[in-house]
Amino acid sequence: MNPLSFVFVTVLFVATVLGQQYAGETIPNSLPSAVGAEKAFFNVFDSSGRRTTLINHFSFPGGARQNKTRVQRAVIILHGANRDSNNYFTNLYDALKAATAVDPAVNENNVALMAPCFTNQADAGRGYPTRNGVSNTSVLAWQGTGCTKNTNIYPQHRKSPSTPSILQYFDDILEYPNMNKSSRRHSMVLRCATYAS
Known about the structure:
single chain; alpha/beta; 3-stranded mixed β-sheet; 4 helices; 7 strands; 24% helix; globular
């Protein structure tokens, strides 16, 4: 084998493995879709360091995954008590389209959009599968609007998730090498809204 080919294959393998650290379990669901989005499943670590899965509406420009090397900024929008992340993503997507009309340099190829879906017990069977009323997946689900208190009901016997985990995905220079550096310095805490949307 050509030594250069070996190096290329090794780099490709390492990049693939590093990217997969953020891929959560695919959770079968019938949550509503949103234009310009795919349902993406992200690993979010609980406070014990164990993996759980957060379902998101995530940028899917032109029906394909974004080229992460082109992304320069990320916008995360959080839904209200109705848990309608698809509507929130659609509003965010429409706002990005309006911004693109004014400045074509700001577009869906270089701005990542995300609307996490904070499922709860009312989403059982629709947001995540259950057997005998219990989910055996790694899906993050809360009691009522319990995400404001970090009291998840699924996965069972796990501590509350670490809220900055999803932000670390965008802060990873290997995943998003061209993310705006000033964006990396900002800190946010993810909390779902307690008001009705």
